[in-house]
Amino acid sequence: MIYLPHTDEDIFSMLQVLGIDNLDDLFSTLPEDCRFNGDLNLPEALSEWELNDHMSTLSQNMAVSPEYKVFLGAGSYDHFIPASVSYLLSRSEFVTSYTPYQPEMSQGTLQAIYEYQTLAARLLGMEVATASHYDGATALAEALLMAVRITKRKKVAISSLIHPLYRQVVQTYFEPTGYEVVELPYLNTGVTDATGLDEMDDLAAVAIQSPNFFGCIENLRVLGQKTHDKEALFVASFTEALAYGLLKNPGSQGADIVGGEGQSLGIPRSFGGPALGILASGKKHMRSLPGRLVGKTKDLDGKTGFVLTLATREQHIRREKATSNICTNNSLCALAAAMYLASVGGTGIRKLARLNYDKAEYLKKELKKAGFTITFDSPTFNEFVVEFPSGFEATHKHLLEKKIIAGLCLTPYYSELANHYLLCVTETVSKNDMDALVREVKS
Amino acid sequence: MKESLGTSGLLLNEPLLWKKGKKGRCGFSLPRRDVEPASLDQELIGEGPDFPDLSEVDVVRHYTRLAQWNFGVDTGMYPLGSCTMKYSPKTNEKQAGLPGFTGAHPLLPSGLSQGSLKMMFEFEQYLNEITGMHSTTLQPAAGAHGELAGMLIINAFHKKQGYRRSKIIIPDTAHGTNPASVSLCGFRPVPVTSNEQGILSVESIAEIMDPDTAGIMVTNPNTLGLFEENIQNIAEIVHGKGGLVYCDGANMNAVMGMVKMGDIGIDVMQLNLHKTFSTPHGGGGPGSGPVSVAKHLEPFLPVPRVIEENGAYILAEDYPDSIGKISAFHGAFGVVIKAYSYIRRMGPENLKKASQLAVLNANYIKEMLKGTLHLPYDRPCMHECVFSDKHQAAQKIATLDMAKRLMDYGFHPPTVYFPLVVPGAIMVEPTETESKEDIDQFIEAFKAIANEAKENPGLLHHAPKSCKVKRLDEVTAARKPCLAG
Amino acid sequence: MKEISEIHLPDDVRYAEDHEWARLEGNKIRVGLDDYAQDQLGDIVFVELPQVGDTFKQGEEFATVESVKAVCECYLPVSGKIIAVNTALEESPELVNNSPYGDGWFVEVNPGDLSEMENLMTHVACMEKLKGAE
Questions:
Q1: In the structure, what pLDDT confidence band is assigned to residue B177 with cuts at 50, 70 and 90?
Q2: Which residues of A touch B176 (CB under 8 A)?
Q3: In terms of CB atoms within 10 Å, which end of chain C has fewer, N or C?
Q4: Chain B nearest CA to A71, separation (Å)
Q5: pTM (2 decimals)?
Q6: Does B70 sit within 8 Å of A105, measured CB to CB?
């Protein structure tokens, strides 16, 4: 087996050093009644060539572009990833190294993650970003738990226009804690209705996603103000990080903590994972942040270097009093995001974000022209909700056969929204594709 | 004298990203604009993030130079205890990179994602078989995430029975994520000490197990590299008072094909795909921490579940007792593909062989180094062994100094100062993918270092000298944190 | 790390089991961490102190001290209300290492029961204990 270098000779001479006769004798400390003496019932080993065939078949049984036109966003976005990024990410010094606990041998990872932290903080307008978390949903859950720790209050209010699956994750995380999670309803303009906050007391945090699940841009400044009036922390979330290449960032609008998803930044969709949880806060809350942090320092010769720092917050030191149990960060995904942002650049990201916006507006306009209702009149970024006529379900299904996925049906998530679909357009969608979609849904 | 593995080399300095570039450069090919700009309320537009403008050449040189400062498994031996830094087969990367997988949206209709659903379903079966458990979820995105899921499942189980139990027993050898996961779930960790043989005794558990204890969280084999021989009796005691047994499966690499956790009293466990199943560590992640459970805990698994219906695979949500969701989508799917590929390439016999050879390598190192380094538990170990710096104390050389000096010899240091029960611990896990020659070279290096400790301790105190940087000032980094540029 | 004989234990303070010290100054008590504790912890990077106005019972956790790799809980040697907190430690936690009985003080307490000072060790008893544990 090509990954097992031991020859029979090697095994024999090593067993001799140990004074035993065969590999089985190595397991003398295994009590007899703990042993499994059979064979594992798994498929026989495949050669590398057979594996290629097998996986090729599996992967072709998937609806992806360019064969399919997939107008889906809802937390997972199709963006172009430069060949240079994929290439650099395959460097095995990045891929096969471990957590940089021995910083002298890991300066590559450490500087790269320090750079990621900086770029993420700048994107969001915040002072400090962590070295990353599993995904946007867990980053949001951690942000809310952080707010509870800081304020010592036991209730959080979250918008019902936060991604439904993120809200489910928050509920799962909060279930054993005894803290209360209250949902804020939405207005018919497609943004959060925060009037309920007036009656609420003892709030640790208010969480708003912008652009929200309907794709609409929330008024973070006003919502942040209302939150601070309640002496709670304002938590901003997002699923489409690229939006902040164009729109006012949460930091500038009063966010105290930001927890969202960075998959749009150079990470393929990959059926939902691995993803990139981005978490950021102000310096004043730095010591309450969960997760890894890379800091800049100097070595014995006075040269600049990087280390993991503020580790006393973390599980391996604080154990049960840690700010979280998190051990991994999604390092390689954070690295991908940094490489992507480095490649796109400050000038480039505004153009790219603007292109996303303009393309989505084009589709909106054409659908309106074709007689369909754009449900919410709030401004959107690259996703929006369309109300199709009753019975559209059949059309949607029919379009699947034509290899067009015309958006995500919202009814399973918002039962009051029958025949409403969430459509997404990124820079990967051409005008021709959009014209084809409009033609097909019209007929 | 054989040539040392570690040598000198040309490394280049590379500034921070924002100290490079020029305004107007770009490293991204902007797609053709085929629509007109639409109107946008000025009020909504921000200033744009303060990012540098870099060309593709700038970016490629930057990260190529940074990569050269790093040491990975592909560079050399990386014997971190409890991390299982085994070789990551490159074909796994190829499979995970197939466009049918990378381009897939997680909310595709089942009918259009049969490839991924089939793979997930089969992979769950493989893990059930390897662990001896009944059902598996692939949703946790890391080992610690799996531990949290496990604790939530235990919590849900007791809640369903109508109890609110408040404690979980945790051995003193536990990894830090264990008590942290316990606390996150609202339980109180109750510590228990291992006996002089380094394992848990039945009596110590019997003493503290009570109806207010939700369960016990064991690691088996434990962090000292020893099999918890009393596990079945311990499980009986915990079960006897209505508790559950969680097993941290981080050390599964020692026992594949030789122990089925489901058969020895374990109710719920997590696996670490980036450890036992060869997916690369990525400098700290992404990982994947699937959780496998016994039949009575199946109803509590996170949703959706992948099930087979009429020859096709679908995602099912109708599990009213489920703990809910712990990841937005299906977990670290891109990582799961790599572990799936690994299992398909290894097959059942080689998985067992891998465990046997991992244990062989660890015992060989233990035997060869026990004269040089102090061995607190001189008994057969499993896939890792633990030494300490006791023999070097007289020369005022600590574990840290030996670890730093190992770098100059071309090896990544083992895990140091863990588990906490051994002061100055040095935990060595070679894994099965290290050849005898490489292990012999490692042993030689450690012996040379122990010698240097006696003859020239300065070499250790000032190590490393061959890396990009010398020892770093972690004190100032913590006192005056500089976390962004 | 120092030898036990090198540990400095001044005679104008009393010592708790966990190596906090308490000094009577008029009608208030000043509290800090002793030389043994700071030496064991190594370079201190952060001290988390309570707020002025907080009250604690004798033996209750009132502060934490962090080095790079460890965290240490501190327990108030006498019951009382916190009337002052050493804000200098925020910028300069190294004061605890360099001047544990002087500028590295933690809090000033308005004591609830002065007789509690009698429960604490003298510098002689503290040194005996350290030598005994060797």
A1: confident
A2: 314-319, 322, 327
A3: C
A4: 10
A5: 0.95
A6: yes
Do the Cβ atoms of B478 and C94 come within 8 Å?
Answer: no
Q: What is the interface size between B and C, counted as CB pairs within 8 Å?
A: 13
CB contact under 8 A, B27 and A342: yes
Contact residues on chain A for C70, CB-CB shorter than 8 A: 312, 317
Distance from CA of C109 to the nearest CA of A (A): 24
pLDDT at A166 > cutoff 90 = yes
Q: Give the CATH superfamily of B348-471.
A: Aspartate Aminotransferase, domain 1 (3.90.1150.10)
Q: Which of A265-274, A305-314, A374-383, B13-22 has the lowest mean pLDDT?
A: A305-314
Residue A311 in contact with partner chain C when CB distance is under 8 A: yes
Task: Please check whether residue A342 touches C, CB under 8 A.
Answer: no
In CATH, which of 3.90.1150.10, 2.40.50.140, 1.10.1710.10, 3.40.630.30 is domain A69-82+345-442? 3.90.1150.10
Which residues from B are below 8 Å from A293, CB to CB?
481, 483
Give B1's pLDDT tier (boundaries 50, 70, 90): low
Q: Which residues of C touch B (CB under 8 A)?
A: 43, 45-46, 66, 68-69, 93-94
Q: In chain C, which residues have their Cβ closer than 8 Å to the Cβ of A312?
A: 45-46, 66, 68-71
ipTM metric: 0.97
**What tens digit of pLDDT does each residue of C63-95 get?**
999 988 788 899 999 999 999 999 999 999 999
Searching chain B, which residue's CA lies closest to the CA of residue C42? B475
The backbone region for B53, taken as left when phi is positive above 0, alpha when psi lies in -120 to 50, beta otherwise, is beta
Residues of B with CB under 8 A from a CB of C: 417, 474-475, 478-479
Sequence spans of domains, chain B? 91-344, 348-471
- Judged by CB atoms closer than 8 Å, whether chains meet at C68 and A287 is answered as no
CATH fold of A84-340: Aspartate Aminotransferase; domain 2 (3.40.640)
Rounded Cα gap, residues C73 and A196, in angstroms:
41
- Over residues A311-323, the pLDDT tens digits come to 877 767 666 676 6
- Name the amino acid, one letter, at B75: T
- Architecture of the CATH domain C4-132: Beta Barrel (2.40)
- CA angle, B378 then B384 then B389, to 5°: 60
For domain B91-344, the CATH architecture is 3-Layer(aba) Sandwich (3.40)
